[in-house]
Amino acid sequence: MALGSNTKSYETPNHPWQGERISEEHSLVERYGLKNKEELWRAQSELRDYRREARDLLGQTQSEDEVATAGGDFLTRLKRIGILDEEDRLDQVLSLEISDILERRLQTVAYRKGLANTTSQARQFIVHGHITVDGARVRVPSYTVEVSEEDSIAFDENSPLADDLHPERAEGQ
């Protein structure tokens, strides 16, 4: 799917004023420390694309063996980025939630690893260049962390936060 330079990479909600949806979005933005709802809508569009691809693959195939082979590359990609577990199958993509996508963001993974006290602080550390992935500085909070990269997330060695006694370091780090 090639997007033009003026095309959004997400879809906004169909109706602007739905109280239940707005409060649910607000709680997700708070919990994951997102900058705004646009980041949430991007993640929702990503999830929608995954579900669409899974439905297309399931619709093209008839037998269990065909289902297993048809979505091989697609499933491998989702397992590599940690959205699916190793034993999950193609039909389980349809039951994914938005939190499965948001949990794989660098911002959330850095917070869960204990590099920051809050998700918002994790976002600030990333944007200010204090966090590295595989030794490379990453300044994008929405960077999708692969399972193989999780253990290599750390403070940049040149960052003042690399000092264990820095006052902004998370407790117990």
List the topology elements.
Elements: H1 19-32, H2 37-60, H3 64-70, H4 72-80, H5 98-102, H6 106-112, H7 119-127, E1 131-133, E2 136-137, E3 153-155
Walk me through this protein's architecture.
The structure is a single chain. The protein has 173 residues and is mainly alpha-helical. It is built from 7 helices and 3 strands. Strands 2-1-3 form a 3-stranded antiparallel beta sheet. Strand 1 (131-133) and strand 2 (136-137) form a beta hairpin. Helix 6 crosses helix 7 (119-127). The N and C termini lie far apart (43 Å).
Primary descriptors:
173 residues, mainly alpha, 3-stranded antiparallel β-sheet, 3 strands
Average pLDDT over all residues: 90
**Beta-strand content bin:** under 5%
Uncertain runs: none
The main pleated sheet reads as: 3 strands, antiparallel
Spatial sequence of strands, sheet with the most strands: 2-1-3
Shape: globular
Radius of gyration: 18 Å
Oligomer designation: single chain
**What's the total helix number?**
7
Content-based structural category: mainly alpha
Report the count of strand segments. Answer: 3
Summarize the structure.
The protein has 173 residues and is mostly helical. The protein has 7 helices and 3 strands; from the N terminus they run H-H-H-H-H-H-H-E-E-E.
